[in-house]
Amino acid sequence: MRPSLLDPLFAPVTTLSGVGPKTAKALDKLLGDETRGARVIDLLFHLPTGAIDRRPSASIADAPIGDVATFSARVSEHRPAPATKAKAPYRIVVEDETGDVTLVFFHADVRHLLQTMPVGAYRIISGKLELWDGMRQMVHPDRILDPKLAATMPAIEPVYGLTEGVGPRVMTRIAAAAAERCPDLAEWQDPGFLAKSDFPSFSTAMQALHHPPDLKAVEGDTIVRRRVAYDELLASQIALALVRRQQKKIAGRATAGDGALRRRIEAALPFTLTDGQRQALSDIHDDMEKPERMLRLLQGDVGSGKTVVALLAMAAAAEAGRQSVLMAPTEILARQHAERLAPLAEAAGLKLALLTGREKGPGRARVLEGLANGEIAIAVGTHALFQEGVAFQDLALAIVDEQHRFGVHQRLLLGSKGEAVDILVMTATPIPRTLSLTWFGDMDISVLAEKPAGRKPIATKALSLDRYDEVVGGIDRAIETGAQVYWVCPLVQESDTLDVAAAQERAEALRDLFGDRVGLLHGQMPGRDKDAAMAAFVAGQTRILVSTTVIEVGVDVPNASVMVIEHAERFGLAQLHQLRGRIGRGSAASTCLLLYKGPLGPVAEARLTIMRETEDGFRIAEEDLRLRGEGEVLGTKQSGSPDWRLARPETDGDLLAAARDDARLLIERDPQLESPRGEAVRALLYLFERDVAIRLLRAG
């Protein structure tokens, strides 16, 4: 049960003063999730991304040009816009003994300006100071204050991630209110480590993060940042330690085959296994033959051949007379796996069946019967495989494709359909070594670092959307030579708020040029329509497939050799790498075009640069980690962001090592965390929402 001391942090944001329904709705979108609205704790962990120095300059002459400046000045003149120029700005001149500044206001509320800035009044003014025609000016100052209210403006103002409907001042005020809700908590850190590190208390650290005394407090490697980073790592390492302990409690079953079915499948393959695939299979078979349960992560770059490894592992289970399942995150990918694997399984005499939420009636009944009586050796499907009513005669192996879509919660539930089920999870999103050590400490890891022979490099280019007509011309030439093209858009339908391409509108525009050779695929289409669109593209009936990111994982059309990603600046690195991986699977040279709308921000520019420089998924993953943050595998967040994730495994190696050692020793000495320190650690787990650990502790 959550400690009552934490209840104020888990209350809705509407319990904070000044947060009404409208603001709460905007915060729900920014900080909440699909099942609940934003809470006070979400604001507490919504940490500043930077800070603005609003410390006042001694005079206007001393105020920095080209940066945020704060100074005291007297209002000397109002200059209304000429009556003949309706769109001209309203100007106010302020001055001190060293010079003057022109304040510029577009679409001004003149009455308000006359009231708040009467001629002769002194005001404190803060905003970006620039030169225009050799004169100092400030367009729409951030702050205009009566000197009596000077104390209300922080010298160092934190900058937060925002959303429509929540401006910077509102966010600063409510984040500070959330920080004030943080109670004084019993200490969960090891006393010796705490003293050695000179860490403040958790509540003191959170207050300091939301009220930075200087710019370094936000941007630098400070004591308070390291304090909370360690807490975050400790919570995760304790959760992983509990998961490891739980796995050890459950006895496994040895699954050993004679290799006959595996040899038949390998003989039917149109290629030779790579050394990496053979090593991964050796690791998996060694695990399956042991009496302990297997929990292994198979990670490999796009196109490295993970699915074949999965099939051969399932064949090993079949050799022992047991069953396997392969679960994919999307129906499209599940159906493609079934279509590709069925001929190979048939060559070995194995029956393979597909089960998704769409299978109904007699067909579904036959599959369920075959799983229950053992006739079906391999089941491929979606989450439907683990619903009630699906029973296996003897399930030995559960394989999850695209591990990045699932967390520890799902891994712990996978064994519920059989006795001592071995688990293999796969990801085509390479994981940096530092992240593997941090978040996958409960798993053994195999890596496929090489691609099958014959794969050609993909030429990747970044082009401005201003060159759209050139791109369309190139597409025309490509399809005339027999090539097929993916054209990926970030939205399904046109948006009133986002100026980005929508798949439906783009498909219509391309059909005006290419007619019926253009297909459309997106996640909101009925299942059968999606199947038909994909089948037409696979068969070559359509030459251009306009799609959303529903094709991001697994889709394999060897003849597709051109990928156009529209508004590439809006996609993350992992997504861009996955999308690019849909081409380059055949014998033809392939090209990926990243269409962007400028001007690019520094992060977007860095993403496109690394995509042009390399196809190495592991290097891309390291860059993604640096730019985006780590994500949350023990919780629900699938991506990190610098505005609340403090732990940085790539630079906080010493903190990570200390947290791992501390977690291990703590669990060994206090298995159920019932000591005084253990009770404090329970509060830590609730605070960082390590639900897996909490459930395991409740279960005893």
TrEMBL record:
CDD domains, alphabetized: RecG_wedge_OBF
InterPro entries, per database record: DEAD/DEAH_box_helicase_dom (IPR011545), Helicase_ATP-bd (IPR014001), Helicase_C-like (IPR001650), NA-bd_OB-fold (IPR012340), P-loop_NTPase (IPR027417), RecG/Mfd (IPR047112), RecG_dom3_C (IPR045562)
GO biological processes: DNA repair
The keyword Glycosyltransferase appears for this protein: no
Pfam family, one: DEAD
Residue ranges annotated for the Helicase ATP-binding domain, each copy included: 287-448
Domain of life: Bacteria
Single annotated GO MF: DNA binding
Keywords: ATP-binding, DNA damage, DNA repair, DNA-binding, Helicase, Hydrolase, Nucleotide-binding
Entries under NCBIfam families matching the protein: PRK10917.1-2 (NF008164), PRK10917.2-2 (NF008168)
Protein name as catalogued: ATP-dependent DNA helicase RecG
